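Today's session is about reading a structure prediction critically. Students often jump straight to the picture, but the first step is always the sequence itself: look for stretches that repeat, for charged clusters, for runs of hydrophobic residues. Only then move on to the predicted structure, which in these notes is written as discrete structure tokens rather than atom positions. Here is the chain we will use throughout the hour.
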Amino acid sequence: PPNTIYEISCLDCPAKYNGQTYRPLLDRMKEHERCYRLNNAVDDTTDRVKSAPAHHSLTTGHNIAWNDIHILKSLSSRSHLDLTEQAAIATRKPSMNRTDSAPKCS
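Below is the predicted structure for this chain, in token form.
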């Protein structure tokens, strides 16, 4: 569904990631997986992480539960996505979520 707050888990440690998308969730999951598959989790020009789950997997060797995504909240409109995602992150404290840039994948 669109306008979704979701959670992705690591299969090898307790790490989790909370994210949002206003597009169909499947489209966003394909982007996360593509970043992993292409070893492209960090934007080379800005050093910003494009996919925290892909970055976690590429830097730790851990496996991500790509096919077991938990929908935390579906919203009727896009207008409250940012606030709802921030609340989920503040409450759940998922360790893959970052507010700063990360080192490039090696």
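Discussion point for the tutorial: The CA atoms of residues 29 and 66 lie 7 Å apart.
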